[in-house]
Write a structure and sequence with these properties.
The chain has about 650 residues and is mainly beta. The chain is about 10% helix and about 55% strand.
């Protein structure tokens, strides 16, 4: 940018050059001077030469140093001495997006300002300025939650130096509006752009730097229009001048600053921007709104029929006539003159309204009257059981026949006599059964048989008996060993499945109703039922990305033990909500139980003797493991033939 004092611009139309590094040239008229703006493709060093009445601008090759990227202004004038101007105030603020905003109030808006990054600091120097003593201080602003940790204002010769100490990743922008110079420091990880004035776009424009003093607002808008190649329509009521200094700011951000500074608004249509005072824009929009309302009241009403395929006509009619909001905010699809009739037999609706409202109703019906997607939900309930039991026991007893038969010792067994020793052992001669028999119960002083019930079995244990007797067969020592080993494995797989529409509850159930009798208040007997069933209850919801959210209630009940009050019900139940991808399988729950038990019954002291202690005890070991897993698999049905 080159300022030419005392020069008048003959033509303000931009000139497209597109040669070398020059893109275009724009001439702007200010108060008492003209400004020549040369838009470049790349940062370039230059120098100016005055040859008679001709001004030459000589440009070098593209600059590679980052410092060359900054915009500079050449003043074609004789330097003059300016008295030192004071800084009136320095204020720190925090924006809602976490941006630090340092506002410096200037007594003279034409003071020279240099903003640069120096190491880790951001430094702003105000040339030929003074700083009041009460503003010469260091402020700790770390509690504000911005990238700025502290800032220091000091007097450095004839310059005022403002040092800003940011932390972390940050970026900055600086601009001046009249007597206020603003520096904004924002974190880079947060989108620092605010929503533009039209509420639809963010600050994403190409960055530019502007430095104008007392420039007309209309001319400044023309500079931005030339830079962006947008068509700008400016209202006749836009007037006034502005002092502005912006550095590396997106052009749409710069435009927003200008509009806010002058109370202007903008409406964009395509590549055309209309700029006018906010009051004027609001008044025009109010007129347009009232005009549209009058058209609604005067336009002829038409009637149009709509054939519905997938939605009930009654439901659509209620939706079209329903009102959302209350009071002045109440709105509905049809106008106040609109009406709806529906025919349930043919599933048609008939709408009477103006043409624009009929178009809106048609668009709504096209979005509503679509086939509802369906979901196939398959549950898999797996029950596994593994059990093992072992029982060992003994019976130990003795018999002495010398006291038999009236106390006559030497009673012989054999020949025509035999002896029955209870249920455990039969003496010699029992098989022949010759002569009479003499029953004599075995005296069991140890009776610890195998505990088959504790081993998880209802069968009898296997037994083997041994006897030791004297040469005269008058004294016996009997031993019976019993043992049982039981092992069981089982698996039950239940797989209910059901198809339902999106966001529609489905239920599938199979089981038994178990009757039981209860006594009524009159003394009579009544029969009631308990249900033991396999049940799957589910409500699916298809998400926009194609996954399925499931509200699940899965249970598997079975009949348990019978009691006097009725049968018991063994219950396995899970209720949950889960998000599953289409066709994916997820385990929604499981129960694992393990039962281990070892029981020992023994004769005190004797049962603890090594090796021999086995004859004075029984041992029962039992272990059981059960596992329950519930899996769920949803599949979105994309074709009617996919459901079988």
């Amino acid at each position: 940018m080159i300022d030419l004092p005392g020069v008048t611009v003959a033509s303000r139309a931009p000139q497209d050059v597109n040669q070398g590094n020059v893109r275009s040239i724009t001439q702007v008229q200010g108060q008492g001077r003209a400004r020549l703006v040369i838009n470049l493709k790349n940062p370039t060093a230059y120098r100016t030469e005055l040859q008679g009445r001709t001004l030459l601008v000589v440009m070098d090759g593209p600059a590679v140093a980052s410092s060359r990227a900054e915009s500079s202004i050449a003043q074609i004038t004789t330097p003059t001495t300016t008295d030192a101007q004071s800084i009136k105030d320095i204020d720190f603020k925090r924006n809602t997006d976490g941006t630090a905003r340092i506002v410096v109030s200037l007594s003279n808006p034409e003071v020279g300002i240099d903003v640069r990054q120096q190491g880790q600091l951001l430094v702003a120097e105000f040339l030929k300025s003074t700083l009041p003593s009460h503003l010469r201080r260091k402020l700790d602003v770390s509690d504000f939650g911005t990238p700025v940790h502290s800032m220091t204002a000091s007097q450095n010769g004839d310059k005022v130096r403002l040092s800003i100490d940011p932390r972390g990743a940050w970026e900055h922008s600086a601009y001046q509006t009249d007597g206020q110079f603003v520096i904004e420091v924002r974190p880079t990880q947060v989108d620092a752009s605010r929503v533009a004035q039209d509420g639809s776009a963010s600050y994403q424009g190409e960055k530019l730097s502007l430095n104008f003093q007392n420039i007309e607002v209309r001319s400044l808008l023309q500079v931005i229009a030339d830079f962006t190649n947008f068509n700008v329509v400016t209202s006749d009521t836009v007037a006034g001048s502005l002092t502005l200094r912006l550095k590396d700011v997106p052009w749409d951000h710069a435009l927003d600053i200008i509009l806010q500074a002058k109370g202007l608004g903008m409406r964009k249509s395509g590549n055309v921007m209309w700029i006018a005072p906010k009051e004027e824009l609001a008044a025009k929009e109010q007129v347009d709104l009232e005009s549209r309302k009058k058209i609604v009241d005067l336009e002829q009403v038409r009637t149009q029929s709509f054939q519905l395929n997938y939605t009930k006509a009654e439901d659509v009619a209620k939706a079209l006539m329903s009102t959302s909001g209350t009071g002045a905010q109440a709105t509905r699809i049809l106008s106040s003159r609109g009406s709806v009739l529906f025919d349930s037999r043919t599933n048609q609706i008939f709408i009477s309204d103006i043409s624009s409202k009929l178009e809106e109703a048609a668009m709504m019906i096209a979005k509503i009257d679509v086939p509802v997607r369906q979901v196939l939900i398959e549950a898999r309930i797996v029950e596994a059981e593994d059990s093992f039991g072992r029982a060992l026991g003994v019976k130990l007893g003795s018999t002495d026949l010398r006291g038999v038969n009236g106390g006559i010792p030497g009673y012989s067994v054999g020949g025509g006599n035999y002896l029955s020793l209870g249920n455990n052992y039969s003496a010699v001669g029992y098989q022949t059964k010759q002569g009479g028999s003499l029953d004599y119960a075995n005296s069991q002083f140890v009776s610890l048989p195998a505990n088959t019930a504790g081993a998880g079995s209802s069968s009898s244990a296997a037994t083997i008996g041994f006897s030791l007797f004297s040469p005269t067969a008058s004294r016996f020592l009997n031993l019976e060993i019993s043992a049982l080993e039981a092992e069981g494995k089982g698996k039950i797989v239940s797989s209910p499945r059901v198809v339902t529409a999106d966001q529609t509850k489905a239920l599938i159930e199979q089981g038994t109703q178990i009757p039981y009798a209860i006594a009524s208040s009159s003394g009579a007997t009544a029969v009631q039922f308990k249900t033991a069933a396999l049940k799957l209850e589910v409500t699916p919801q298809i998400t926009p990305e194609g996954s399925v959210t499931l509200d699940l209630d899965v249970s598997k009940d079975s009949q348990g033990v019978s009691t006097t009050a009725g049968p018991a019900i063994n219950t396995k139940h899970v209720r949950t909500q889960v998000l599953v991808e289409n066709g994916g399988t997820v385990a929604i729950g499981g129960i694992f139980t393990q039962d281990e038990r070892e029981d020992i019954e023994k004769v005190p002291l004797l049962g603890d003797i090594p090796f021999l202690g086995f004859f004075f005890r029984n041992t029962t070991k039992y272990s059981k493991r059960t596992e329950l897993l519930i899996f769920i698999t949803p599949k979105i049905v994309t074709d009617r033939t996919a459901v079988r």
